[in-house]
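quick one, 207 residues, struct below
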Amino acid sequence: MTGVEGTAALTPELVDSEVARRAEAARLKAEHDREFATFAEGSYHTVEGILRAACWNREVVQDALNEAYLHGRVQWPKIRAYAEPIGWVIITARNKIRKEMQRRQREAAVAPEDLPPAPHTDIADVWEAQEMLRSWLHRLPSRQAEVFQMSRKGFSNQDIARILGLAENSVRSYKLAARKRLQELAEEAGYTASEGRRRRGGSRGPR
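---
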């Protein structure tokens, strides 16, 4: 009997082709893994800063970020072709944050940690200044806070508009409104642009 059935019937050419296909798939996966690792390392803190401008709860932000990056790793072969892959992460994490905050609000009244903290009476160092700004940003509408923080991170109006799906005129309006409100909050806390760190009415001391 000369007939051959099953896998034994595969020709050497077919076997070689399958081996080559698998080798190429493994090479491509390894390349994408390296790309994504580099992207995640370079973008994580930027995205975290943008999201925390709109959500004070750091735990919620980090959980949403971790989920977004895990999902992004699976979707990386598609996301890598986007003009702004970081925009996909921002939007995905922001949606997860929104869902989590809605879930928490359904379960209970607004928790103390979700309320804007009371302004500090003094800014002692850079870290406190950042926390002060973050507390003020949290009191802005979320869209204004996001746009303002993205601008601080070096994104152009065009970049912000593309990532968030806004018109550039809207981006400029959000930035202007955010700056105006932040200035008001700074003045309420006793700080003015001319006095810098000094509080209104405080002793200026010797010059």
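Confidence is low (pLDDT under 50) at residues 109-125, 194-207.
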